[in-house]
Amino acid sequence: MKMEPSYTSVGKIFEYRPMFFIPKYQRAYAWEAESVEDFIKDLKNCFEKRNSNIPINHFFGGVLCVRYPVAGAVNQNEYEIIDGQQRISTFTLLVSCLIEIYKGLLEQAKKEDDENNKFILQERIKRLSERFIEFRQEVQRQVDSIEVMKLSRMDHPFYKELIRGMNPSPSRDSHEKINYAYKTIYKEVNNIVSSSSLEEKMDKIEIIQNIIDNDFTILYMVTDSKEDAFRLFQVINDRGTNLTVGDLLKAKTLEILEDFKNHQDSCEKFWDNILADPPSKTEDYLNWIYASYKGKRAKQDELFDVLLDGFFPSHKEHKTENFTECESKAVYQTVKNINEDIEKCRKLREGQWLYNSQQPITNWDRTRLNILLKELEHTLSIPLFLAASKLDHRTFSEIVQVVEKVFFRYKIICNQHATALRNIYYAESLRIREDTDSYETSGLKQKLNRLIATKASDSTFENGLKMLEYKQSGGSNKPLKYYLMTAEYYCQWYLNGAKGTPLCTEKNRIYDFAGTSIEHLYPKSAKDKNEKLEPLKHKLGNLTILDPSQNSSKGNEPFEEKISMYQQSSVKLTNDIAKNGTWTEQEFNKNQDLLIDIALKVFVP
């Protein structure tokens, strides 16, 4: 392998109008706040030393490029950045900040009719712009504007506008990171050069230019071999030391498709969308997708390997150049499927319904998914819902409501370990994918019924409900509110005899989860305390809900003074409580027994 390494300054590689670009398989801009802050510390340290006439070098590591001659231009090359794009991009952001500050100083010089400094500033802006932003280039008698640095396809339009002072709006995680880096560097450079006079500011910016041209150093490695690019990229990054699992999968699949440009271009767009979220979210999504298809959880230190082997098995059979058209289509289809599943993961994480609105599924049915995933945060079930999205919307809704009831009973109230639930979800995901057309929910219900019988029996569930209490601080009341709302939804079915499958008989009544409040029947802070009710005030039997149209302004008033408010409530359970003329321990016990009996009838698979 022919390589030309050189230890050089950052400014040196920008000296002769280079043209840098990021390859398709590289990740988007990924520097977090900590990396930007470290960069600024290094800049400040070099500034202090150079300002004291004792300049020092700071080494930023290696930059590896593949060189390509530009057709029709003399001694002009393009450089594909295989490693080091984060550093190179940040250097150009720093220079764009210097240019922006110079432009402000130029306006000041114009106002002061300072022709000498006006000329100097114009020349500095021009030289920096041509070296680091864009320059004019003649190619075959055609003069064009050439950009010095081109980021990835998804990042470049944002970056291009940002470094030209156009104030673009971020639309993805990498844009947010670029924007943060630029604004943070701009603010810190402004602080560094703050001085009373125009000349002093110009001198300090010139010091920063000298730091870039002399003190910031890198190991610059250039090769002319395109074939070595992917191998170098993977060796340098040591299977994920610097890259996320998604970045590595993108690199590997685009490498496989190198000889199939149409598929490669399409997959690049898919990966741009797949990797648009913060890395931690993307990793969650990839874990859920893997579990949904393979019926098992990936070990975190092996996620890249198991995803690669599980979804792209042909990569192990032969080298990249031996892939067939048929195999490339399979890779393309798999990446497309992952992209579609990523979109589903995003919706499910937000509790969004995956189907178009259609009867007989109502808005009430759809809210069950939102409450399960957003309010109760049961994301462990997402692999199952990914698989279930292959089914019709009625079966999907049935699975959601079965999972919702079992999760509340088994995990939230009985506090059993989630592993058994997870294993059932994973096994059911495989059943759905293996035979979608003939799938029925009876098998899922049987497994969950067996789990309930052994780990969350009626007596265990009842004891757990009796332990359920309103938390004034240090905990969430979402499970308590969820149960009271659910009891209300199924109340009429229960009062009608609780026959057959539990059913919400009035699905047109949908209470907003956030807007619905928990009401203490015996007040939280009673003026005249009752010795028997005081220890019970946060227990289930002393609680009900108020619909969003009401408020708890009378919350600390005696029960008798709140009866008229309860009588006006649209909540049947609350309305029925108003029939009591008083509130004693006897009414408490009666209400608690009712709520527990409803739960025992409703929360079954």
Structural commentary:
The structure is a single chain. The two termini are 63 Å apart. The strands form three sheets. Strands 1-8-3-4-2-7 form a six-stranded mixed beta sheet. The protein is built from 23 helices and ten strands. With 605 residues, it is an alpha/beta fold.
What would you say about this model in short?
With 605 residues, the protein is an alpha/beta fold. 55% of the residues lie in helices and 10% in strands.
Q: How many angstroms separate the termini? A: 63 Å
Q: Count helical runs.
A: 23
Low-confidence stretches: none
State mean pLDDT (0 to 100 scale).
90
The count of DSSP E runs of length 2 or more, i.e. the number of strands, is 10
**Outline, from the CA principal axes?**
elongated
Helix-and-strand structural type: alpha/beta
The radius of gyration is: 32 Å
Strand order of the largest sheet: 1-8-3-4-2-7
* Major sheet size, sense and barrel closure: 6 strands, mixed
Query: Fraction of residues in helices?
Result: 40-55%
Q: Approximately what portion of the residues adopt beta-strand conformation?
A: 5-15%
